[in-house]
Design goal:
Layout (H helix, E strand, L loop, with lengths): L3 H16 L3 H5 L2 E5 L3 H14 L4 E5 L19 E5 L4 H14 L4 E6 L4 H10 L3 E4 L4 H14 L9 E7 L6 H14 L5 E5 L7 H5 L7 H6 L6 H7 L1 E3 L2 E4 L16 H10 L2 E5 L6 H8 L3 E6 L3 H16 L7 E8 L7 H8 L3 E6 L2 H10 L8 H14 L18 H10 L2
Parallel strand pairs: 1-2, 1-3, 3-4, 4-5, 6-10, 6-11, 7-9, 7-10, 11-12, 12-13
Antiparallel strand pairs: 8-9
Helix pairs in contact: 4-5, 7-16
Length: 423
């Protein structure tokens, strides 16, 4: 069995090394589990991996004594320590007392038996910030983490915002919107921006940006429990002043097996101010996980009837999955007044405000595609994409127009078409 000093030394060296050159160390949870009971460690670690998938956990399998708690004082500010008092009450309380005195920067959570309120009170008086009772449960742990984060906000750095872009149907231009929005957010002043192409089947960002994927989001998902800044830097690429996460070049390389992007996006929010997710499909567990993780969802459609009917189906589907409609922003792409419906008709039919209209400009899109660059800002479409990016980044201070009262006069047959499609 390793002694406490060597375990603490290793932990300190690890975190000081990470803290010297990464954004992750300043924002990630640092968690230390002190327990001589292996089952307790495994049980707690399993819960932590679900609630805090990017957390770095260090296990210490002996109670520190007064001879070696000095090393604990080196733990970074915001470190969190779970201390087991159930396995050995006397040794645990002694360790709690010495740790609390030697390492005031540690936030200590005591693990105590459920039937011992006296020990709970004693632990709190000795220096524990809060406690968990056995058997350990996810809800109880989440409640404790939420309380600790409010008391000591440095435990969690400000998280980046996630915008997930989904098409109403194929061919609506969602990937073009995602690329240009992320580039616009970067230009608006977001120092750390990530464009994540999480489309496992038809992802086009590599082609659109003229990049060659060496690694993909499949590699990140496969190592989600052990992601760190060094591994991450080897997976993403840099282009247009932002980081880009690409899909596998070959669909057979595991892209069809992914189902949950939660841990990946949770990790990304620790590193970036803004994350734009290009999701090639609106349906399925993989897409739903990215939609649920998003602060805002851009639903990209055209103003043509087939696309609008598809948009209605997506809105109904997300609502059935418990995703609030107010989180979804409808974007009308490739808008042509002479083809399809007007903005007002679309809003009335879908009972959803149109967040942004993007005019059709085939030449500007093709020119940008050939150059591997965002659409020129001088074009009408480029300006509209810039407005969309500014709104999402929170840098657009223009007052919102007054809401117009919508009417269905003369359009009952058309709206019945959408009503039938949603039942």
């Amino acid at each position: 069995m390793n002694n406490v000093r060597s375990q603490v030394d290793s932990a300190v060296r690890y975190f000081l090394r990470k803290g010297g050159n990464s954004n992750l160390a300043s924002g990630a949870w640092r968690i230390f589990v002190v327990s001589p009971n292996r089952n307790t460690v495994l049980e707690l670690s399993a819960l932590l991996s679900r609630l805090l998938p990017t957390a770095q956990v260090v296990e210490i399998d002996e109670y520190p004594s007064s001879r070696n708690t000095g090393d604990l004082a080196e733990f970074p500010l915001g470190s969190l320590c779970f201390l087991d008092l159930s396995s050995d009450r006397e040794a645990g309380l002694l360790a709690l007392s010495t740790i609390a005195q030697a390492a005031p920067r540690l936030t200590i959570i005591a693990l105590v038996p459920n039937s011992d309120p006296q020990q709970i009170l004693q632990a709190l008086r000795t220096g524990a910030r809060d406690f968990l009772t056995s058997p350990l449960e996810e809800g109880q742990l989440k409640s404790v983490l939420d309380k600790v984060a409010q008391i000591i906000p440095e435990l969690i750095a400000e998280r980046g915002r996630v915008v997930t872009v989904v098409p109403a149907k194929g061919g609506c231009g969602a990937s073009t919107v995602a690329f240009n929005v992320s580039a616009g957010i970067r230009r608006s002043g977001s120092q750390r921006t990530l464009l994540a192409d999480l489309d496992p089947h038809t992802g086009t960002q590599a082609f659109q940006m003229k990049l060659k994927p060496s690694f993909s989001f499949v590699d990140a998902v496969g190592h989600a429990s052990g992601l760190d800044i060094d591994l991450w830097k080897g997976i993403v690429q840099q282009a247009q002043g932002m980081d880009v996460l690409l899909p596998p070049e070959n669909i057979a390389d595991g892209g069809q097996d992914v189902t949950d992007s939660r841990a990946l996006l949770e990790f990304a929010t620790r590193l970036y101010n803004n994350i734009v997710v290009d999701m090639g499909m609106p349906y399925g567990e993989w897409a739903l996980s990215a939609v649920r993780a998003a602060d805002e969802v851009l639903l990209v459609s055209t103003n043509e009837l087939p696309a609008l009917q598809a948009a209605q189906r997506v809105l109904n589907y997300y609502e059935s999955q418990g995703i609030p409609r107010q989180r979804i922003r409808l974007v009308l792409n490739r808008f042509r007044k002479e083809v399809g419906l007007s903005k007002e008709m679309v809003e009335t039919a879908l009972q959803t405000e149109v967040y942004q209209v993007l005019m059709s400009d085939y030449e500007a899109v093709q020119r940008a595609l050939l150059d591997g660059k965002p659409i020129a800002q001088a074009t009408v479409l480029g300006k509209q994409l810039g407005q969309l990016a500014a709104r999402l980044a929170g840098t657009d201070d223009k007052p919102k127009p007054a809401e117009k009262k919508k009417t269905a006069t003369g359009l009952s047959g058309f709206f019945n078409l959408f009503s039938r499609s949603s039942t």
